[in-house]
Design brief:
The chain has about 250 residues and is α/β, with parallel strands linked by helices. About 45% of the residues lie in helices and about 20% in strands. The protein has two domains: about 1-65 and about 185-220, Rossmann fold, CATH 3.40.50.2300; about 70-185 and about 220-245, Response regulator (Rossmann fold). The protein has helices at about 1-10, 20-30, 70-80, 100-110, 125-135, 150, 155-165, 175, 190-205, 225-230, 235-240, and strands at about 15-20, 35-40, 60-65, 85-90, 115-120, 140-145, 170, 180-185, 220-225, 245. The strands form two sheets. Strands 5-4-6-7-8-9-10 form a seven-stranded mixed beta sheet, sandwiched between helices. A three-stranded parallel beta sheet has the order 1-2-3, with helices on both faces.
Length: about 250
Amino acid sequence: MPALAADFVQRKVDLIATGNVAAALALKSATATIPIVVVAGDLVEDGVVASLARPGGNLTGISMMFTELVPKRLELLSELVPGASMIALLVNPNNPHAAGIIRAAQEAARVRGVQLLILKGGTENEIDAAFDALLQKQAGALLVGHDSFFFARTDQFVASASRHAVPAIYPQREFVAAGGLISYGTSVPAAYRQAGIYAGRILKGEKPHDLPVQQPTEFELIVNLKTARALGLTVPPSILARADEVIE
C-alpha cells in the first residue's frame, strides 16, 4: 500500500479517492497536499481525520457507521425472531472495530433483555466452527458483524445459515441477494455518491479541511421472503412496511 501511495504522489494526481482505511492512512503519510476523499468505517477512531466537524489536513469523506448500526440490527432480529432468548454475534477478531461492535451489541442485548453469545471467526474454518458453536449453545438467531473478510465469503455464510436453519441478519444487501434472510446497513451507492459530490467540490477549488466528514443519510432494509418461508418464519408487517426491497 505505501508503494501505491507513493506512485500516486509521484504522478501528481489532482485528487485521490479510496474506500479503504489502510489505503487512506498510507496516503496520509505519503502526501499532505493532494486532496483525499475516503469512504470507510469510523474515520476518527481509525486515525484518518482529527474530527468529523474539522477533519483537518488534506482528507475528508464519508464515515460509514459500521458500529452505530449494530443495535438496530439486533432490534430487527429480535422483532423477526421474537422467540430467540439468546442471539449470537459473529465478529472477525482481526477487525479493528470488533471490540466496538461487541460493546454495541452487548448494550443492545441488555436493553432488549436477551442473552448475547459472542463468536469469533477470522478464517473459513473458524466461521464453520462458529455455526457449530451457535447450535451447541442453542442460540436462536445470528447477528453478523460488518467485515470485509465476511463479505468476501457471502456464499459460505448463506449456505451455512441455510444448512443449519439459522435466522441471520447481515450488514449488507449482497448477503440477502445471495439467499440470506435479512440485512440492514448503509446504502453503499449513496455513500459513494456523497463522496463523488465532495470530489467535485474539491476539484472546483474547495479545500478538504473545510468539508466536514459526512455520515450516511440513506440506509437499506432488505428482506428475503423465500428464505423466511424456508426457515418457517413469518416476517412481521412492521418489518415489511419498512423494507426498501422484498425478495420473493
